[in-house]
Design goal:
By secondary structure, the chain is α+β, with helices and mostly antiparallel strands. It has a single domain, classed as outer membrane lipoprotein receptor (LolB), chain A. It has 3 helices and 11 strands. The chain has an 11-stranded antiparallel sheet. About 20% of the residues are buried.
């Protein structure tokens, strides 16, 4: 009975939710995947380095956003960390910025979560974080009127590109 109930919950989360999987690049080198899972109550973003690269750098993360609160769990070379909202905004502002934008499709210059300016150029949205020292801009490129962009480019200390694969 319990297995049937869990299978039913899994089916509902897939049927009622939305998700997108991206191939992640560090510069031009493919390094892993990032998966966005979305439903009415929460958003999860999970990233994993490809297994064949783990001997060089082993990194996984899980970002969870519920209501106005969010958490980040990281595993980096056997170290496990949990970040709260304030630490995420300081260290990894691109995650909440992308999630906030995908939820609202509007700029948040007032700074309720993290202030940013938004510029639209055709099918491209450019997010300019107003307080970040690590992220200069985030470019989201949409194919059509999807919930998720086909490409996400994060410019900052490092260049990271996400290309949608499903």
């Amino acid at each position: 009975m319990r297995k049937i109930f869990l299978a039913f919950l899994l089916y509902l989360s897939i049927a009622l939710g939305d998700e997108a999987v991206y191939k992640a690049y560090y510069g031009f080198i493919p390094i892993g995947t990032v998966e966005f899972k979305w439903n009415d109550k929460e958003i999860k973003v999970e990233g994993k380095v490809y297994p064949y690269l783990r001997f060089i750098y082993d990194y996984n993360f899980l970002f969870e956003a519920k209501d106005n609160d969010f958490f980040l769990y990281e595993k980096e070379n056997k170290k496990i960390r949990k970040y709260t909202k304030e630490k995420i905004l300081e260290k990894k502002p691109w995650l909440p910025l992308i999630v906030k934008f995908l939820k609202t499709k509007k700029a948040d210059e007032t700074g309720k979560i993290y202030p940013y300016k938004l510029k639209k150029e055709g099918n491209r949205y450019i997010i300019y974080p107003l307080k970040s020292k690590k992220v200069k801009k985030i470019v989201l490129i949409f194919d059509k009127d999807d919930n998720f962009p086909k490409k996400i480019k994060i410019y900052g200390k490092y260049f990271i590109k996400l290309e949608r694969i499903s």
